[in-house]
Amino acid sequence: MKRFFARNAPAYVFLLPWLIGFFLLALGPILASLYLSFTRYDMVSAPRWIGWGNYEYMFTRDRRFWKALEVTFTYVALAVPARLIMALGVAMLLDKGLRTIGLYRAIFYLPSLLGASIAIAILWRQLFAADGVVNQVLAMVGIQGASWITDPDTSLYTLVVLAMWQFGSPMLIFLAGLRGIPRDLYEAAEIDGTPRWRQFTRITLPLLAPVIFFNLVLQTIDSFKTFSSAFIISNGTGAPADSLLFYTVYLFNEAFKFFRMGYASALAWFLLVIIATFTAIAFFTSKYWVHYENERD
Amino acid sequence: MKTSATDLELAIQMDEAARVAHELRLKRDRQERNGRILKHIFLIIVSCVMLYPLFWLLASSFKPENEIFGSLTLWPSEFRFENYTKGWYALPMSFTVFYVNSAIVTGLSVIGNLVSCSFAAYAFARLNFTGRSFFFALMMMTLMIPYHVVLIPQYVQFLNLGWVDTYLPLVVPRFLASDAFFIFLMVQFFRQLPRELDEAAMIDGCSPFKIYWAIILPLSLPAMGTAAIFSLIWVWEDFLAPLIYLNDIKSYTVPLALRLFLDQEGQSAYGQMFAMSVLSLVPVVIFFVLFQKLIVRGIATSGMK
User: Fold this and answer.
1) What domains are defined for chain A?
2) Same domain, B13 and B132
3) Which of B267, B277, B270 is CA-nearest to residue B54?
4) What's the pLDDT tens digit per position in A136-163?
5) Is A106 within 8 Å of B278 when comparing Cβ atoms?
6) Using CB atoms within 10 A as the burial measure, which of A71, A165, B130, B182 is most buried?
7) Is the same domain home to B246 and B182?
């Protein structure tokens, strides 16, 4: 007993801040929000148990919940592939045949660092405004641009473009992955006269699969959590016509504008389920489509 | 005689082959050079498109109000520095207050992250203890949890503690290693350091804390630097947590002030709003330029955003 204590005590001292944080800021709140999701709670009176009421309302009667799901899933389905294709394309350009890539790498990465800031969201509103930069560029080639931000049909695409603009970090991860592919594979393929496209589908894609998978999971989870830019561009409400009603924006409004804390907790838990599902799917299916090089013998 | 004829033929053939090979090599070099030039042209165009919005923002912050829209040029007809001087005082509080607030929150948060995350990472990476893999798995799972799920109970908790409208809800979690990303980053780095160092130090009678302080930390400055820069930039740009916890304009951070600007003055004073937006990005850009190498390496090794 004494030895057990002596062996473990130092480690747990180091772990203590994280352990306290884990119980008070992660596990505790997760369980608390599970409890709250079964109650009606407005922060004035004590939470009142209503069973499955919140979830029932959410799935059967709340149109805005379904709208928020639609907006968020559409966004994820467009933004993640767009960003990853951009990232992979540019990474492949940078990977081969150029001597110095430092400056390009820096320029392409910078938007990823700035993209989450309020300043950029403010800038984006003006770029896509009716008299904004985008429309002026379009006018030069004779296209009459829309009022991108205020038109419910196009507003979401402005955020997809913002997401594409921030392809820097998956690009860096792709670059590291491409560096790991042995050069002699390409040389052998070159001697065999394999066309470039086949080299891409037969060498690059399979060997890069773990990295693609990693980026895909990371970016998907990240995109579900999009908040600041959607909040600023939609004036905090999901406008116009709820076309920017991101799930997180809806959740925020239910909780901190209308103080429907119980219902917002139910929304939060459903978000956790969605993200956990995506992570799990990616994880458990990865062995069918990801080939790790040292796995084959 | 016959042999020398074949020799001659052979020599000619070899010469021919060498010539063809040389030509092929030249052709390949030429193709490669052309390809390189094409690539550079393409990448330069992409770079310009990527940077144009940022330069437009910068240019607009100096332009007179009527020149901002309806023009793509990046050179103002006259430089209006008063966008900066007026914008600084356009809100009920001056931006000095907001920058001081942001600096306080960011500074404390970075310290909190570095101390608490390196403690946890040291335990996970270098110490043997019962339950290590269990807790490590738990830590990795917290990476996945969206902030929105813990937000409401945390808010209730902090409200009951009387912490709303103070910086405590923003800073204290960072001293409790709530940004598990950094633990993961540091664990990756600590693991690469040779074990023999710890063992030798232990034989010399060093305590685990001494090993952490005198061996691990000094050898991990790149990892600590990466964590510090990322945490600095993320906290500086953080919007959701300040939005929820800070209601009094006196305690606003810079992102909240910008949002207020957008709501109050945005429709009439674009130049000033852009000027303040530019200023809010300046610290991030400076840190990026100074510590670019650390940032790039940090992403490549840990896969952070």
Assistant:
1) 57-295 (1.10.3720.10)
2) no
3) B277
4) 888 888 888 888 888 898 999 999 999 9
5) no
6) B182
7) yes
Quote the tokens at residue B147: 């902030």
Place of tokens 């695409």: A157
Q: Of the candidates B278, B50, B243, which has an alpha carbon nearest to the alpha carbon of residue A232?
A: B243
How many angstroms separate the CA atoms of B244 and B255, rounded? 13
Only one residue has tokens 């907006």, namely A71
Do B101 and B248 have their domain in common? yes
Please give the average per-residue pLDDT across B281-301, as a whole number. Answer: 84
CA distance B298 to B229: 10
Residues B168 and B273 in one domain: yes
Minimum distance, in Å, between the CA of residue A195 and any CA atom of chain B? 16
Does B285 reside within a domain?
A: yes
B299:A228 CB<8 A: no
- Pick the range with the lowest mean pLDDT from A184-188, A255-259, B282-286: A184-188
> Does the predicted interface ipTM exceed a cut of 0.90?
no
**For the whole model, what pTM was predicted?**
0.89
Backbone torsions φ then ψ of B189, nearest 5 degrees: -75, -50
Collapse the DSSP code of B294 into the 3-class scheme (helix H, G, I; strand E, B; otherwise coil) and give the result: helix
Domain hosting B7: range is: 2-60
Q: What is the DSSP string of A68-118?
A: HHHHHHHHHHHHHHHHHHHHHHHHHHHHSS-S--HHHHHHHHHHHHHTTSH
Decide if B140 is inside a domain: yes
Mean pLDDT, rounded, for B203-218: 91
pLDDT for the residue numbered B52: 92
Cβ-nearest to A176 among B132, B239, B300: B300
CB distance B146 to A273 below 8 Å = no
- Do B27 and B109 fall into the same domain? no
Residues of B in contact with A119 (CB under 8 A): 57, 258, 277-278, 280-281
Q: Do B296 and A109 touch (CB under 8 A)?
A: yes
- Rounded Cα distance, A159 and A149, in Å: 9
Residues in chain A: 297
State the best of A123, A138, A213, A251 to mutate against chain B, taking most chain B CBs within 10 Å.
Answer: A123
Chain-chain contact of B281 with A222 (C-beta, under 8 angstroms)? no
Q: B254-267 burial string, b = 16+ CB within 10 Å, else e?
A: bbbbbbbbbeebbe
